């Protein structure tokens, strides 16, 4: 879809559809009022008759509105003005785009971006609108032999800003929104692919392809090189699978040569059967999403490269398939990680931390400014935070605050959880330096505490996206989270967010 920005009045738009908001109960937004004046109360008459209360999620499509130059007017209910916040704004945009896509209009001029949202700037509204619009039209139908084609799909959206002097800031915000949405699409596409297609080798090839398109340096470490480096924890996870593990290393150099990089590490388990500690059958298909951390850091890198952010960014993706083959790790096996610390594998289903710990040790080579790992790490995180917030753990409170704030700005929120040493004793093993599981209680915390033992040399945060990376049920699919959070963090670091 094509996007553009303009300023102007709604009655003068030569467009297939002009979109304006109505607050509940029956309160016209400024743009709706301008249309109504030009149309000699046509809108207010309809609203008085009771056809549009302004309830959130409601729409009313009007044709031949007098006094206007557009083919149609779409009224979108915004709910109560007092309650109109980040979520309500996003919902309104999604509702408008869904409806536009279903009507015959090829293009729409959206005035919802003029409506003020508490604490948010015009640039914020445009950035969020372009992300929400692209999210709404996203489809994953490459395996459907008959695709449900939209009869007359929406091709062009124009977002309106109230003043001409906002145009350049809005253009930049639109650009950022489109790059973020592109990054999310890549993340969703990779994540939605089935495990028999998206293997570690497939992920490595996808990374190489993306790197080649954006002048990013890409290196793939194979099993032998990882063995030489001593990554026996990572390698142990792949032993039950026919698929070879990989460590994908990408370096984007948009900053000065001596700027220390931000390192993003993404968990890339392309299918998590649990291994010998086999998972139960119900919903096991969803474990194809166990590479969503990997997909999100690749998507973030793509978005950062599209925007040519003046930063150095390194992306590490340890990737493997966790299967119960004859060579698989057994409960009780002890492995030596690259750090030299030994690990007793009490549960082969706690495999994410086993691949991440070696990647995190490897991250130290880049003399990082900051390291952030992203992982669908624990079911316990879903119990704690549900599907709304990502779990955030950090060994540095400034970094934690930056990430919480970035998530808030992006409406892709994270909630900080404790990483206190008091939890560390749960990882005691009688035979090795640590066990890979800490028992039933505080499972997302003990998982983070495990990772913390490998990140003492630098500033680090861990994002547990087990509850936020995909949706189950009828609208099953990857969400692209936390690409928006990470991109807002990077944009802020790059001085591109005001
Ligand atoms: N990939 C899973 C975590 C997961 C489970 C994410 C369900 C989303 C939904 C991870 O590898 C795992 O299996 N974790 C175990 C850890 C346990 C064995 C300590 C879990 O959460 O049950
Ligand atoms: Mn697992
Ligand atoms: Zn897993």
UniProtKB/TrEMBL annotation:
The gene is pepA. Presumably involved in the processing and regular turnover of intracellular proteins. Catalyzes the removal of unsubstituted N-terminal amino acids from various peptides. This is Probable cytosol aminopeptidase. PANTHER family: CYTOSOL AMINOPEPTIDASE, LEUCINE AMINOPEPTIDASE-RELATED. Mn(2+) 2 binds at residues 267, 272, 290, 351. Belongs to the peptidase M17 family. It catalyses: Release of an N-terminal amino acid, preferentially leucine, but not glutamic or aspartic acids; Release of an N-terminal amino acid, Xaa-|-Yaa-, in which Xaa is preferably Leu, but may be other amino acids including Pro although not Arg or Lys, and Yaa may be Pro. Amino acid amides and methyl esters are also readily hydrolyzed, but rates on arylamides are exceedingly low. GO terms for cellular component: cytoplasm. Keywords: Aminopeptidase, Cytoplasm, Hydrolase, Manganese, Metal-binding, Protease. Mn(2+) 1 binds at residues 272, 349, 351. InterPro entries: Leucine_aapep/pepB, Macro_dom-like, Peptidase_M17_C, Peptidase_M17_leu_NH2_pept, Peptidase_M17_N.
């Amino acid at each position: 879809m094509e996007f553009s920005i303009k300023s102007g009045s709604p009655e003068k738009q030569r467009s297939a559809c002009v979109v304006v908001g109505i607050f509940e109960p029956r309160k016209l937004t400024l743009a709706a009022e301008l249309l109504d004046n030009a149309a000699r109360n046509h809108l207010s008459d309809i609203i008085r008759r009771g056809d549009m209360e302004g309830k959130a999620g409601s729409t009313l499509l009007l044709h031949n509105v007098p006094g206007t130059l557009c083919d149609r007017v779409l009224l979108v209910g915004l709910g109560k003005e007092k309650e109109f916040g980040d979520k309500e704004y996003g919902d309104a945009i999604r509702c408008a785009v869904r409806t536009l896509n279903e009507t015959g209009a090829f293009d729409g001029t959206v005035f919802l971006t003029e409506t003020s949202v508490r604490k948010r700037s015009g640039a914020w509204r445009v950035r969020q609108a372009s992300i929400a619009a692209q999210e709404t039209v996203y489809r994953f139908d490459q395996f459907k032999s008959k695709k449900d084609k939209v009869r007359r799909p929406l091709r062009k959206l124009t977002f309106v800003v109230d003043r001409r002097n906002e145009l350049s800031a809005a253009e930049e915000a639109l650009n950022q929104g489109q790059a973020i949405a592109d990054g999310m699409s890549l993340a969703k596409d990779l994540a939605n692919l089935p495990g028999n297609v998206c293997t570690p080798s497939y992920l490595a090839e996808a990374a190489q392809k993306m790197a080649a398109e954006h002048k990013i340096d890409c290196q793939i470490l194979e099993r032998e090189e990882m063995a030489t480096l001593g990554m026996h924890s990572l390698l142990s996870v792949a032993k039950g699978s026919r698929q070879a593990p990989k460590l994908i290393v990408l370096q984007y150099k948009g900053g000065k040569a001596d700027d220390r990089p931000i390192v993003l590490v993404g968990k890339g388990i392309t299918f998590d059967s649990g291994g010998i500690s086999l998972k139960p059958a119900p919903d096991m298909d969803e474990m194809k999403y166990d590479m969503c951390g990997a997909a999100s850091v690749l998507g973030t890198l793509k978005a950062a490269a599209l925007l040519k952010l003046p930063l150095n960014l390194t992306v590490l993706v340890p990737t493997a398939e966790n299967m119960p083959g004859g060579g698989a790790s057994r409960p009780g096996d002890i492995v030596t990680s690259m750090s030299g610390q030994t690990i007793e594998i009490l549960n082969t289903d706690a495999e994410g931390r086993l691949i991440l710990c070696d990647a995190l040790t490897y991250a130290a080579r880049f003399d990082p400014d900051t390291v952030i790992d992203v992982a669908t790490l624990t079911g316990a995180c879903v119990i704690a935070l549900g599907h709304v917030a990502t779990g955030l753990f950090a060994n540095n409170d400034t970094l934690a605050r930056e990430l919480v704030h970035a998530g808030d700005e992006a409406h892709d929120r994270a909630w900080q959880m404790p990483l206190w040493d008091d939890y560390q004793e749960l990882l005691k093993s009688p035979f090795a330096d640590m066990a890979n599981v800490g028992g039933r209680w505080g499972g997302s915390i003990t998982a983070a505490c495990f990772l913390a033992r490998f990140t003492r040399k630098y500033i680090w945060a861990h994002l547990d996206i087990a509850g936020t990376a995909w949706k189950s049920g009828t609208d099953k699919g990857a969400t692209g989270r936390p690409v928006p959070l990470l991109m807002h963090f990077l944009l802020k670091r790059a001085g591109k967010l005001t």
